[in-house]
């Protein structure tokens, strides 16, 4: 049996009782390491907070493990209970669908334990989830690679009055260009896109495309560490948010569409100088 | 302090450890009753499963309590810790934003505990969440009220190749027309729209609008009791799904847009006669 278990967004306490029960039934526990694990108490010396809670050791599954060693992981799941722990919800990201498909093709039972993901937790800012259009991803620009496919999608959402969730790039355990050239595996340090970088890139693309999909005056909501005790949520124009330091990752950004009165009322709490942003804990447990 | 705590989708074991800790700190616990509580072990004799787990009594908060008696609930939260439990995630539905706004205006601290909602858990079928367009709601048609605003939205999503999540109507504790006329409060029995009714209404609207937004051959995924142990997920054309009995509520429906290969591979498991639909537990814990 392969269990794919969502850990939620904040820390070790965000696992569900169902998820914890399943973990305890497993002989081997992998935890995915392609997204941020910072808030889950994972330090250099290992996965102490989670391991203490589960009462057993964890194996960090980086991209390499999952993509290259999936067969070995799945072989284990044929003879015993294996858990694969995922930050957020198992299907909030694309990465896990492929693992499930491979498991099922091998006839391995797969059980899923859901949890909160960024895709639904952004609802906390008051913008209604059914008023969002297509989600976009903002990748890190490089000297030579500055893709702007998100521009058209944002433009379309805004023309329809819909909000746009922008997922910001995460680069964890990326082979360095130098190491690829030399045939040796060396990794870049992890990089997480900040709200500031995302807005800079968005405005740069607007400067190039010049179709007024949005501007520096466009209302947005910036989220840092959503679901954690020290989450930071601020509503303001792109220009305003550019001046802020949102601190540690993960960050994401919502570009606000046409709002209803109850959405406006909630956003007020998150505006600069508003009630929400003055509080240290910013309305989250 | 007002805690708004998501219970997740399945049963009492879907609360998070963080949520359970918060419940235990509260003197008064309300549980919302406008969506389905069937799977949470709530029978006529009270909220036994949850009350046993929490070690304290619950108060059922129907629409009336929240809309008419919110002031009383909030007054309690000014002097003590009050929990408001919500099926799914607190902000998966619109209902709770208003409560939060009112609380904050009164200066009451609000803390949110996130959980899975239908909006992200539909990811289990393999269709990627970032490939969804605007979510639509399908309301129960009556003799005289047959709104079709969802049609245009579905058409737009499909033109862009995006999937569409259809949330199906729930009518809990609706005053009966007769009782409204007589000035007495009598309620209709609860009604939950089935996938079959949703598809019938969708096809009826297509017959009226005739713009080929979709047809009886359009690929869909039907979900019943998503996140529960006896969930049922089947992929097939509207025509095929119309022949099935999905059983107890809640149901929801996804109209499939343009798919990527990995999405197709996952959908295969849920097709009629496929691997997923043959299994009793259908891939969920």
Characterization of the model:
2 copies of one chain form a homodimer. Chain A has 285 residues and is an alpha/beta fold. The first copy, chain A, is built from 12 helices and 12 strands. In chain A, the strands form 3 sheets. A 5-stranded parallel sheet of chain A has the order 3-2-4-1-5, sandwiched between helices. In chain A, strands 6-7-12-10-11 form a 5-stranded mixed sheet. Chain A has a two-stranded antiparallel ribbon with strand order 8-9. At the A-B interface, helix 1, helix 5, strand 5, helix 6 and helix 11 of A face helix 1, helix 5, strand 5, helix 6 and helix 11 of B. Chains A, B: Pathway: Protein modification; peptidyl-diphthamide biosynthesis. Chains A, B: Its EC number is 2.1.1.314. Chains A, B: S-adenosyl-L-methionine binds at residues 9, 89, 92, 117-118, 168, 226, 251.
- Class derived from helix and strand content of chain A: alpha/beta
SSE ordering of chain A: EHEHEHHEHEHEHEEHEHEEHEHH
- Largest sheet: number of strands, sense, barrel closure of chain A: 5 strands, parallel
Just name the CATH architecture of the largest domain in chain A. Answer: 2-Layer Sandwich
Q: What is the CA–CA distance across the termini of chain A?
A: 34 Å
Roughly what fraction of the amino acids of chain A lie in strands? 15-25%
Give the CA-based shape of chain A: globular
Number of domains of chain A: 2
Cα Rg of chain A: 20 Å
Q: What is the CATH topology classification name of the largest domain in chain A?
A: Methyltransferase, Cobalt-precorrin-4 Transmethylase, Domain 2
Secondary structure: number of strands of chain A: 12
The residue-averaged pLDDT of chain A reads 88
Low-confidence stretches of chain A: 278-285
Biggest β-sheet: strands ordered side by side in the sheet of chain A: 3-2-4-1-5
Name the helicity range of chain A: 25-40%
Top-tier CATH class of the largest domain in chain A? Alpha Beta
Question: What's the name of the CATH homologous superfamily of the largest domain in chain A?
Answer: Tetrapyrrole methylase, C-terminal domain
Q: Quaternary state, please?
A: homodimer
**How many helical stretches of chain A?**
12
Q: Largest chain interface and its two residue counts?
A: A-B, 67 and 67 residues
Catalytic activity (chains A, B): 2-[(3S)-amino-3-carboxypropyl]-L-histidyl-[translation elongation factor 2] + 4 S-adenosyl-L-methionine = diphthine methyl ester-[translation elongation factor 2] + 4 S-adenosyl-L-homocysteine + 3 H(+)
InterPro entries (chains A, B): 4pyrrol_Mease, 4pyrrol_Methylase_sf, 4pyrrole_Mease_sub1, 4pyrrole_Mease_sub2, Dphthn_synthase
Protein name (chains A, B): diphthine methyl ester synthase
Binding site for S-adenosyl-L-methionine (chains A, B): 9, 89, 92, 117-118, 168, 226, 251
